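Q: what sequence does this backbone want?
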């Protein structure tokens, strides 16, 4: 039912309905923010880039051809904006604000902080492993874990075959496991 509601809101937003777009924004904000936070490692930059993404997507939504591609389309806009910001600042270690955001539950993995065996360092290591994935792999993992989409839905959004999405996700998760295993000397 939620998916049908989202498609209805997208159609209305394409016709200029500001309220419909506002409800769409509410539906995707946390997924966009989580992706931006993990990519940029800075909560303020993540908030800014999500705001820019929402503004640009509102202006351009009339050009969206397929309503079912909305999430893939808006994540593509966000990815391009994150890439631009990453070029603006050189590689730097995670900042304290980023670690605080992780530990405070401002992202999907942050919700685990304080649970048995999960601490701030674990979350920072996880975010670091996530950041080392290729751009499309980060997008696939984000859409799956942050957005809750199936491989078939992600494949439609990214115009890929479901098998390709599943294999890329599997390789990405294996890479992250390898990076985390190395970090913990397991």
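A:
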């Amino acid at each position: 039912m939620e998916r049908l509601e989202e498609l209805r809101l997208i159609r209305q937003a394409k016709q200029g309905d500001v309220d419909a777009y506002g409800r769409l924004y509410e539906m995707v904000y946390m997924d966009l923010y989580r992706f931006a936070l993990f990519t940029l490692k800075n909560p303020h930059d993540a908030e800014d880039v999500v705001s820019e993404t929402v503004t640009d997507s509102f202006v351009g939504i009339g050009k969206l051809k397929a309503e079912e591609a909305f999430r893939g389309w808006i994540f593509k806009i966000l990815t391009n904006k994150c890439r631009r910001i990453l070029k603006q600042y050189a590689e730097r270690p995670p900042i304290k604000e980023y670690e605080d955001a992780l530990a405070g539950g401002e992202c999907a993995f942050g919700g685990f902080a304080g649970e048995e065996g999960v601490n701030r360092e674990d979350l920072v290591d996880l975010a670091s492993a996530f950041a080392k994935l290729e751009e499309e792999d980060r997008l696939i993992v984000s859409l799956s874990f942050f957005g809750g989409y199936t491989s078939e839905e992600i494949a439609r959004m990214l115009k890929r075959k479901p098998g390709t999405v599943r294999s890329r996700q599997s390789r990405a998760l294996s890479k992250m496991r390898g990076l985390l295993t190395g970090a913990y000397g397991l």
